[in-house]
Amino acid sequence: MRIAIAGLALIGAVALTQGALAQTQTAPATTTPATPTPGAPAVGTTGTNTGVGVIDRNTGKAAAGGNTNQAVATTNANAGQPAHGANSFTMGEAQRRIASEGYQNVSALTKDDNGVWRGTAMKNGAKVNVWLDYKGNIGQQ
């Protein structure tokens, strides 16, 4: 019985491997350039119209601090708005990091739907709303 099961497993593995190999084969590239039609869009080396299907991912609103959405804050300056993203700071880490920027009595911290820790603190004798984004940027509203 064990031999039969092992044999079936081996046959299945070979079939999967052959299927995967068949999927990775591609047709050879053509080297004959297309003859341009007057008024038609230019054709790129891939055989598609130039600019068609191309997505420029850096045309939207700049991320917090005007940077290019780096994973962590790379300057000592904090951003004006929090960056949205998965936040790995624990509540205690968020509280200590906010306190390290001169805020006192950091409390009522909750993580919102955008991954931003928000709470209240005291700064220069006034109660303020504070936030900490996933990059470590700290700000107040």
What would you say this structure looks like, in words?
The chain has about 140 residues and is of the alpha+beta class. It has a domain at about 80-140. Helices cover about 25% and strands about 20% of the residues. The protein has a 4-stranded antiparallel beta sheet, with helices on one face. The longest helix is centred in the first third of the chain and has 23 residues, at about 1-25. It is elongated and about 75 Å long.
Following the backbone from N to C, one meets helices and strands in this order, namely HHEEEE
State the secondary-structure class: alpha+beta
Number of strands: 4
Oligomeric state of the chains in view: single chain
Radius of gyration: 28 Å
What composes the largest sheet? 4 strands, antiparallel
Shape: elongated
Unreliable spans are none
Mean pLDDT: 72
Distance between the termini: 70 Å
Number of helices: 2
Tell me the helix content: 10-25%
Sequence of strands across the biggest β-sheet: 1-2-3-4
Q: Work out the strand percent.
A: 15-25%
What's the structural blueprint in terms of helices and strands?
Elements lengths: L1 H23 L66 H9 L4 E8 L5 E7 L2 E7 L5 E3 L1
Descriptors for this entry?
four-stranded antiparallel beta sheet, alpha+beta, 23% helix
Write a brief structural summary.
The chain has 141 residues and is of the alpha+beta class. The chain has a domain at 82-141. Helix content is 23%, strand content 18%.
